[in-house]
What we know:
This is CHHC U11-48K-type domain-containing protein. The protein has 3 helices and 4 strands; from the N terminus they run ββαββαα. By secondary structure, it is of the alpha+beta class. About 5% of the residues are buried.
Amino acid sequence: MADLPYATCPYNKTHRILVLRMPQHVLKCQKSYMGPPLKTCKYNAAHRVLDMERHLTECREFKNFMDVENYWRSFECRKPKTSYDE
């Protein structure tokens, strides 16, 4: 288990949780949280942050999403015209 990745709980910085258990932990820990409201990342629901704009500059899931979107957009531009398009 020493090689499994750990992350810090966004609601309680003393909690170190296995990344694969973080979604369940966040839901449980959110119930007893008394600080400022945290926003949920659209690309990974386990990400809870105060400043979403700053978070998106660092979020790996957001970057992966944008790479995939750009990949498919590049195909849209390259489609040959068909007789229906004219």
